[in-house]
């Protein structure tokens, strides 16, 4: 495939040069579906967050964060990120025209994900008393930890389903499910708010939204698999993958290691703050993280939309196309993130005071600290998926391992002293360190492979 040519400055302005490739337009179209859904979901989530924060107050808001994140962390610990494996290998076999093996990969991924979901719920049940004691600082919340943990059983194949929909460009379906799930949650939260409910009712509302989205994704994936591989796709023999077993296992284990290490690096932030400083500081930090995520709204769908395109280009050895996608994506992501960061810098404090009440204003300094790291992370949003598409899933795992050691030292030496502010600084540092190394490795690998095939 020849390198796509973007229009010159004589043919159009900067905007045309940025999107003057069919590859970029396809990435933007698919990410556009996801961004529309993410934007709507974020708006709904912000309203939901305002209602919940006003209803519960800072401390219970922090406890809610520990309950939901506790389940998420354990689920990620058990997860093998099946969406990434499905995108890479179902996509690869589809490009090669081997539909039976593509179906076998999806079947294997769904079965393994189901087993790990059962394992994850078992861990949640076992560890819930510790979560209530050390994170929520209230043993009476043990039941709530177990109750919310039921969502991992509903998510029995959420990752595999999402990966399959990505491969076959069903981004509209993903977007619809995302919005529908958010509407369910917000509707229930509004009812709870108007009726003066409490933490228990809020947990049930969060569960209802998550479970509805998970079942919708599973149904959509089964229909999609039948449409592409026939109604008997599930009979595809897993034994067909025997010659690739070692490669598949290595990829899955590497992504699991990365996810597990990230429990220290970024995914367990609120839990660490709550355990070392208490639920009130966790409440401040939860809001800071939520507002910082506003910067990522248009950027967050890009990895999901870009990864299948990068995997296709790697399968066809189109290194020039891959470099083009990465370069153009970074320019657009940086431009947006800088403007969004300036907006939050100027208006963040009055927004917090007006919508969340002045009680939450201590969140603002942490928000500013987080913005620094997120600017780097957003600009090179492809730093990890590019390495996955190149078959180097172990490299980001190694980088994350080094970062985890450094961050663990920081957590136990800095957070007890500086609280959630120190945690924000550590998270920004993690983004800068890991993203820079992964991006550098990607550029090195592309230069090497390009010189070999040229």
Descriptive overview:
The protein is mostly helical. It has one domain (14-453). It is 82% helix and 0% strand. It is built from 17 helices and no strands. Helix 16 crosses helix 17. The longest helix is centred in the C-terminal third of the chain and has 60 residues, at 394-453.
Give short descriptive properties of this protein.
454 residues, 0% strand, single chain, disordered N terminus, mainly alpha, 17 helices
Task: Please outline the helices and strands.
Layout: H1 14-18, H2 22-78, H3 82-95, H4 99-134, H5 142-149, H6 151-154, H7 158-167, H8 171-194, H9 199-229, H10 245-267, H11 269-277, H12 279-292, H13 301-315, H14 319-356, H15 363-379, H16 383-389, H17 394-453
- Contiguous low-pLDDT stretches (5 residues minimum) are 1-15
**What is the percentage of strand-forming residues?**
under 5%
Helix content range of the residues, please? over 70%
Can you count the helices?
A: 17
Number of domains: 1
Distance between the termini: 14 Å
Count of distinct strands: 0
- The sequence of SSEs as H and E is HHHHHHHHHHHHHHHHH
Based on Cα principal axes, name the global outline: globular
Structure class: mainly alpha
**What about the largest sheet?**
none
Whole-number average pLDDT? 87
CA gyration radius, whole angstroms: 22 Å
What's this entry about, in short?
The protein has 454 residues and is mainly alpha-helical.
């Amino acid at each position: 495939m020849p390198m796509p040519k973007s229009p010159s400055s004589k043919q159009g302005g900067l905007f045309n040069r940025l999107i003057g490739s069919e590859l970029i337009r396809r990435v933007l179209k698919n990410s556009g579906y996801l961004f529309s859904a993410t934007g709507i979901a974020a708006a709904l989530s912000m309203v939901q967050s305002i209602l919940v924060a006003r209803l519960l107050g800072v401390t219970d808001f922090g406890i809610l964060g520990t309950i939901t994140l506790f389940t998420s962390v354990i689920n990620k610990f058990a997860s093998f990120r099946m969406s990434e494996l499905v995108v890479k290998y179902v996509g690869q076999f589809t490009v090669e025209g081997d539909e039976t093996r593509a179906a076998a990969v999806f079947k294997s991924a769904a079965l393994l994900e189901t087993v790990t979901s059962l394992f994850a719920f078992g861990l949640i049940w076992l560890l819930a008393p510790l979560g209530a004691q050390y994170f929520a600082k209230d043993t009476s919340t043990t039941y709530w930890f177990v109750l919310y943990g039921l969502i991992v059983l509903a998510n029995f194949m959420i990752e595999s389903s999402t990966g399959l929909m990505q491969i076959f460009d069903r981004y509209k379906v993903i977007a619809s499910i995302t919005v529908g799930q958010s509407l369910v949650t917000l509707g229930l939260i509004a009812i709870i708010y108007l009726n003066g409910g409490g933490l228990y009712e809020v947990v049930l509302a969060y569960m209802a939204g998550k479970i509805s989205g998970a079942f919708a994704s599973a149904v959509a994936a089964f229909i999609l698999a039948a449409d592409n591989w026939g109604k008997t796709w599930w009979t595809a023999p897993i034994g067909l993958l025997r010659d690739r077993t070692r490669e598949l296992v290595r990829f899955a284990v590497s992504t699991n290691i990365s996810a597990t290490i990230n429990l220290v690096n970024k995914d367990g932030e609120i839990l660490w703050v709550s355990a070392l400083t208490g639920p009130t500081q966790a409440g401040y930090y939860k809001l800071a993280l939520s507002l910082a995520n506003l910067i990522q709204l248009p950027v967050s769908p890009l990895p999901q939309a870009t990864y299948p395109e990068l995997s296709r280009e790697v399968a066809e050895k189109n290194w020039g196309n891959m470099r083009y996608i990465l370069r153009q994506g970074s320019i657009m992501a940086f431009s947006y993130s800088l403007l969004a960061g300036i907006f939050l810098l100027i208006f963040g404090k009055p927004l917090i005071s007006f919508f969340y009440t002045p009680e939450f204003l201590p969140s603002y300094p942490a928000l500013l600290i987080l913005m620094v790291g997120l600017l780097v992370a957003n600009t090179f949003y492809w730093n990890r998926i590019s390495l996955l598409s190149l078959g180097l899933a172990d490299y980001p795992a190694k980088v994350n391992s080094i970062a985890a050691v450094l961050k663990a030292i920081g957590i136990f030496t800095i957070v007890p002293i500086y609280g959630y502010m120190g945690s924000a600084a550590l998270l920004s540092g993690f983004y800068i360190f890991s993203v820079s190394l992964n991006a550098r490795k990607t550029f090195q690998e592309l230069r090497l492979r390009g010189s070999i095939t040229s």
